């Protein structure tokens, strides 16, 4: 393989981003320490390539380099900066990743092998960061189709079957995303965030299994006098074992998706205290949000109460799978290095480019 030093150094983005994707899947948190080294590396690579372009025999080389760099920084980096300031559906890691890619990968790398060159399908403008972004968008559009097919194969039919999955409630402590149903059985997006659910349980010093077993915990008088640190809702070591101990693997029959009901009551626990109560603040939802002095991922007292009612009364619920854009972006990065631009290839096959 023959390539320039900057192009070889840019391959370091693959294992670094892959590690970030692993952390994102496991905890929904990407370490901030990933970005400064890649940004410094990107600036160094840009400086070397700029120097080479200035001294290239082709007078057009520097103008082409400058144009691609400007497009990368303004379009991809600008999107990242915008989504960092206005996080509409984007996390901070997604935004930082776009900015990093715009600096590290403005121009197409070239890797020569015996008989072929990678990437196989470059675009006309040859802005590599733009290829990574469009690849991620194309791959991201395929995920709802997968969910739709997987749910249909399991016989799980609902209005949210293209954006969610149905899981045992006891698995919620180790899942990511948000609820897709309310107490009335209506399916909708924007339900209780599962990170907020973990924060509430830790603040109160109880497990989800405790809430399901003891309906009296709906009474705000049972709140702790000295609440615990709610953390930020990240999945911690031991949550997986706790979910297994709570019976999370056996609540829903994997073969037909049927629900089991313990002791003849929703959730298998004592719900006597949840029926007909007249609490001013059921579950202590408002007290929790007031105590943490902020928003738990946009959670309101009403949405927290609704979510807690659902997860204590049901044995299985629909949730968003919570697959982060960052993971899709990493797949787009790998495909860009190995193949090239998926959208450009598709347009070429249709004779549009």
TrEMBL record:
Its EC number is 3.4.23.52. It is found in: Cell membrane. InterPro entries: Preflagellin_Peptidase, Prepilin_IV_endopep_pep. Residues 14-144 form the Prepilin type IV endopeptidase peptidase domain. Residues 218-280 are annotated as: Disordered. GO terms for molecular function: aspartic-type endopeptidase activity. Keywords: Cell membrane, Hydrolase, Membrane, Transmembrane, Transmembrane helix. Its main location: membrane. This is Peptidase A24.
């Amino acid at each position: 393989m023959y390539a320039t030093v900057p192009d070889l150094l840019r391959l370091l983005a693959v294992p670094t981003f892959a590690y970030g994707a692993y952390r994102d899947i496991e905890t929904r948190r990407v370490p901030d320490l990933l970005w400064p080294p890649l940004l410094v590396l990107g600036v160094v690579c840009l400086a070397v390539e700029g120097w080479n372009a200035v001294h290239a025999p082709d007078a057009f080389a520097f103008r082409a380099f400058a144009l691609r760099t400007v497009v990368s920084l303004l379009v991809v980096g600008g999107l990242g900066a915008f989504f960092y300031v206005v996080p509409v559906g984007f996390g901070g890691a997604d935004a930082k990743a776009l900015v990093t890619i715009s600096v590290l990968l403005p121009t197409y790398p070239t890797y020569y092998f015996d008989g072929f060159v990678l990437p196989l399908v470059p675009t006309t403008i040859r802005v590599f960061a733009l290829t990574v972004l469009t690849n991620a968008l194309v791959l991201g559009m395929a995920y709802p189709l997968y969910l739709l097919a997987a749910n249909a194969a399991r016989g799980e039919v609902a209005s949210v079957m293209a954006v969610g999955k149905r899981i045992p409630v006891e698995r919620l402590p180790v899942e990511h995303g948000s609820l897709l149903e309310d107490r009335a059985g209506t399916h909708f997006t924007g339900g209780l965030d599962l990170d907020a659910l973990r924060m509430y349980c830790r603040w109160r010093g109880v497990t989800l299994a405790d809430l399901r077993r003891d309906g009296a915990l709906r009474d705000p008088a049972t709140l702790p006098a000295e609440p615990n640190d709610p953390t930020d809702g990240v999945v911690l070591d031991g949550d997986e074992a706790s979910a297994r101990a709570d019976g999370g693997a056996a609540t829903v029959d994997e073969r037909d998706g049927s629900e089991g009901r313990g002791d003849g009551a929703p959730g298998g626990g004592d719900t006597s205290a949840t029926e007909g109560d007249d609490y001013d603040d059921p579950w202590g939802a408002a007290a929790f949000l007031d105590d943490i002095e902020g928003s738990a991922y946009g959670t309101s007292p009403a949405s927290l109460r609704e979510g807690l009612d659902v997860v204590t009364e049901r044995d299985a619920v629909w949730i968003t799978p919570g697959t982060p854009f960052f993971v899709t972006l990493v797949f787009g990065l790998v495909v860009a290095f190995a193949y090239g631009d998926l959208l450009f290839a598709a347009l070429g096959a249709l004779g549009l480019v």
